[in-house]
Design brief:
Blueprint (H helix, E strand, L loop, with lengths): L6 E6 L2 E7 L14 H15 L8 E3 L2 E2 H5 L19 H7 L6 H7 L14 H4 L1
Antiparallel strand pairs: 1-2, 3-4
């Protein structure tokens, strides 16, 4: 009862198969996609790798690779919290602070805590 689905679209290569919206007129509303953007980004990066534009083990910064970013194992000291001291959270600063104007630069400015590729840590920074 607490979480409502506001809209669903089912599609395939031929187009939209079916749609559902909780309220009339929602089909014209813009929705924040949040974490689904991580999947979309990974698909685009996968295609870039397939087309030879990127390499999975290409360094992005130092020893942080495309692979470690996709696996959320960059090793950066990233704070994904939303509830405890939200304005100190890296994710809140990245999305809503002045850092939002260049998210990639902001993420790569975060100091390393671990060696890339060795520890998984959920990070919207890595996917951004």
């Amino acid at each position: 009862d607490k979480i409502k689905t506001t809209g669903v679209i089912v599609a395939n290569a031929d187009g939209i198969i079916d749609e559902y919206y909780e309220t009339k007129g929602s089909e014209d509303r813009k929705f924040l996609l949040w974490s689904i953007s991580k999947t979309v980004s990974a698909l685009i990066i996968g295609r870039a790798i397939q087309d030879g534009i990127l390499k999975l083990d290409e360094n992005v910064k130092g020893s942080i690779t495309v692979r470690s970013l996709l696996e959320m194992s960059s090793g950066l000291s990233w704070d994904e919290s939303y509830e405890e001291a939200p304005f100190k959270s890296n994710v809140v600063r990245m999305l809503y602070g002045p850092e939002a104007f260049d998210m990639g630069h902001y993420v790569l400015s975060i100091p390393a805590k671990h060696k890339p590729g060795h520890r998984f840590k959920y990070s919207s920074g890595d996917s951004n």
